[in-house]
Structures are given as C-alpha cells and as structure tokens.
Specification:
The complex is a heterodimer. Chain A is of the alpha+beta class. Chain A is built from four helices and five strands. Chain A is 35% helix and 25% strand. Chain A is globular and about 40 Å long. Chain B has a single domain, classed as STAS domain (Transcription Regulator spoIIAA, 2-Layer Sandwich), CATH 3.30.750. Chain B is globular, with a radius of gyration of 13 Å. Chain B starts with a strand and ends with a helix. The chains are: A alpha+beta, B alpha/beta.
C-alpha cells in the first residue's frame, strides 16, 4: 500500500508522547513550554499560524498554572506533557493549586470589563486551541488539556 | 527574545518604537515603566509604534490597556501605530480594536493628534 493510501484508510494515528516533564513554577518555565510547543507543532506539520496559535494557548495555560495555580511556589511543579500525531498536538498542563471555578471568571468581553488589565488568558486559550477541557486531578490541582489539529487546506 | 523600546519626539508627539515581545515579565514591565515615565514628564501625546512587535500575550494586551488608561486619566492621548496581522487579530478577539485609535502610517497618525 502506498503512503497516500495508508493515510486514507488507516485508523487515527497512535499518539507519541514527545514531552513529559515537571517544570518549576517560574516565568522561565512559561517560555520553555511555549518553545517546546512551537517545536512540537512544527514537527507535527502544523502551519506557521497554527504553531503560533497553539504555542500562545499553551503559554497562557502555563501562566495560569504557575501564577494562579502554584502561585510561584518553589515546592510545586507544573506537569507538562505533549503528545503528537501527524497533524495533531495534544497538550496537558497540570498544576498543584487549589483549582478554580470557570464560571466565576468574569467575561473579559463584557463592556464593563473591556478596560481591565487582566482576565483575558482563558479567552485566548479558547480562541487558539481547537479543544479545551479542564478537570480536577485525583492527586490535587487542576489539569488542562488542549488539542490543536492541522486544517485540511494546509 | 525580549523587548527593545526607544522614544523619539516629532513636534509635541512622543513616538515610542517597541520591538520584540510584550509578554508577562520583562516585556510588559519595561513598557509600563516607559509609559509611566513619559506621563510623569508631562507628555500628553503618545504614539505607540508596534510595527516590530513579534508577539504579545494576554499580559501584553493588559499592558496596552493599562498604558491607554494611564495616559487618558492624565489628560493625554495614546494611539497605536503599525499593528501586525497577529496583533490586530488579538485586539479583535479581545474586542479592543475599537477601543484604541489605530493607524497604519506614521504620517496620518501624527496628523491625527490635535
């Protein structure tokens, strides 16, 4: 079977874990996670815009984990994981914080909030990831899962 | 990787040329200090040139909003110049595109200050 025929008939490709690491709760980790995502997205064959979009969604997610979840604690880590398949990236970011209520986050697009300095991270994550989900981890903390898929026209 | 900021004067307008990344940490705080410094010196007309900005995250957007409100609350005007497509998209997603006065050419931006 040719490569092209294979890719038309096959089951979804098995994901390969390309990054699985514990990051310190620092701003350097935010830059590092962004860079690792950019590289993984490039290798997975995502377009330049898609590479940029998912790395920004990851950046905002890791900022939330470091700043709001772990509160820069030297004793807490961010569990960062990237799984890749051709044309698809799945990223999970786990923190050791107290969790938060999504519905309690003020709408940054509401007229009265437009000029607030902060509160736009989740908006950008949802705008730039194809799929966003969040769960409480059994061991405590929050885990966010993001998916980015290459568009067909690429 | 990080941010570079230079200011120049055109008549009574201060043009702030920003290059690099406006992100949580150094980028955002350097921009904040620059704007606060100009306001403290009594500058009322500020044109923020973002033409060479490669990347802005949500903290960077927050810093732009904060620059806008700081200048406005001190009786001044802050306008934006030369947005890249990515920065434009971000301002549209966050509904800030209509909040800022945005220009593509320096000449028309300078002419718009009264």
């Amino acid at each position: 079977m040719t490569e092209a025929a294979k890719s038309m008939n096959q089951e979804p490709e098995q994901e390969v874990v390309s990054v699985d690491t514990l990051l310190d709760s620092t701003l350097e980790s935010v830059d590092l996670a962004e860079q690792m995502t950019m590289e993984a997205a490039r290798q997975a064959g995502l377009s330049e815009d898609e590479q940029h979009e998912i790395s920004m969604a990851v950046r905002e997610t890791v900022v939330n984990a470091v700043v709001h979840g772990n509160r820069y604690s030297a004793h807490k880590k961010v569990h960062f994981r990237i799984s890749t398949a051709p044309g698809r990236l799945t990223i999970t970011v786990g923190d050791q914080g107290n969790g938060f209520d999504l519905s309690a986050v003020p709408d940054p697009l509401a007229e009265e909030n437009l000029l607030h300095q902060s509160g736009r991270g989740l908006l950008l994550i949802r705008a730039f990831a194809d799929d966003f989900s969040m769960r409480r981890r059994a061991e405590g903390g929050t885990e966010v899962r993001l998916v980015k898929q290459r568009k067909k026209h690429n | 990787m990080s941010i570079q900021i230079k200011s120049r004067q055109e008549g009574d307008v201060t043009i702030v040329d920003v290059a690099g990344r406006i992100t949580l940490g150094e980028g955002a705080s350097t921009l904040r200090e620059t704007i606060r410094g100009l306001v403290a010196k009594g500058q009322k007309k500020i044109l923020l040139n973002l033409g060479e900005v490669s990347y802005i995250d949500s903290s960077g957007i927050g810093e732009l909003v904060s620059a806008f409100t700081t200048v406005t609350n001190n009786g001044g005007t802050l306008k934006l110049l030369g947005l890249t497509k990515r920065v434009k998209d971000l301002l549209q997603i966050t509904k800030l595109y209509t909040v800022f006065d945005i220009y593509d050419s320096e000449k028309s931006a300078l002419g718009s200050f009264t």
